[in-house]
């Protein structure tokens, strides 16, 4: 009886771990179709009829082109996930190109469904991530940082807040792989201060321990 319960527990844990990220595919491929008008919703994308699949379903062109960094943060992320490349559906992987103007920033953000591995191909980036809240309430979240040069690689664990900042006087370029066909992104400042409808200023004043006018100013920036 005890052995049976133990085996059941192990199987249950293994199953939960297996679904901690994108599930494994059950066929060679499952090319996504445009399901914007679909009345059936699935965790992922509806599969295209395999007989209708072509090589173009697995192809994307354009990552050789620099993104437009003329924006307040001075960076541009060009994604290649299942929404741009239908053949990624069910494969549990995606890619981005990130361009940075001099002193440009990819601001603090998280990917709720993916670990990210980043490689610098041009320029110098100051990168970092912050750990989740420690069990000991007397301890603080820990910051890990590194200055990266061309050819350097850094990894950001799934769900943790991270950033990249171009500390050079010239533009920088990096590419990153993510462990999900649709990793998602939550830019912290935009989500907190630019949500629609906005989070109550009373909530944010209490959370950040600042004057309400500061909160109103920050909300006005987004």
From TrEMBL:
Mn(2+) binds at residues 109, 111, 116, 162. Keywords: Apoplast, Disulfide bond, Manganese, Metal-binding, Secreted, Signal. Residues 61-216 form the Cupin type-1 domain. It is found in: Secreted, Extracellular space, Apoplast. GO terms for molecular function: manganese ion binding. Residues 1-20 form the signal peptide. This is Germin-like protein.
